[in-house]
Structures are given as C-alpha cells and as structure tokens.
Amino acid sequence: QVQLVESGGGLVQAGGSLRLSCAASGRTFSSYAMGWFRQAPGKEREFVAAIVRRSGSTYYADSVKGRFTISRDNTKNTVYLQMNSLKPEDTAVYYCATSFIPGGLYSGSTYNYWGQGTQVTVSS
Predict the structure, then answer these.
(1) SS3 (DSSP) at 29
(2) Residue 75 C-beta-side C-alpha neighbours within 13 Å
C-alpha cells in the first residue's frame, strides 16, 4: 500500500506561481514513477507531468512544458510540481499518483495509487 498526500494548492493570479508537494508513505521503495494529473470541472482527467524515481527522467504535457517543473526528493519520499506563469486554464484539482511499472506514464490507468487532490485556482 502507498499513501499519497498533496499540498500547496491555492488561489493565485494569472502569471503567478505555486509549488505543489506530494508526500508518499508506505511501499514507496519499489515504485517506478510519480505523476501529476489534473481535472477541471466538466473535463476529463489529464496528464500533467511525471518523473521516474531512480533516473529522474521527466515527462510533460505539451500544455505545461516550459512552465511547470516536476522534481523529487527520494530521501523525503516527496515529489514537487513547480508551476510558473500560471494561466486561468490551469485551474483544476491536481492529483499525484504512483506507478510500479515502466512505460505508459501519460496514462492514468498506469498508476496504482492516488492522492486526494489539491485545488489550484488561477484568476484572470
């Protein structure tokens, strides 16, 4: 079992920044990657970013590339999502998730455990 707890969401003006954190506990040593997804009202959940736990390789959705940065601190079992130049269309509930298999990191079905989500609201 893995428990994931997100934090760092909030209300920010367009152009501002936020940093989300995802603290993992439990069977984290065998996880392959951590990912961030988001879901806006009335829309499907979408991939945002992912990072491979051992290699640090990162993957981003085109919509956030150049603005968001995913990183991890394995000593703290924590993954971060630094979000800069935020836009109103970034408004969503952001979820972190963990995967135990390589590949398919852009798909939510690859991930086994999910956090409860944290709200990010960007005002125009």
Answers:
(1) coil
(2) 0
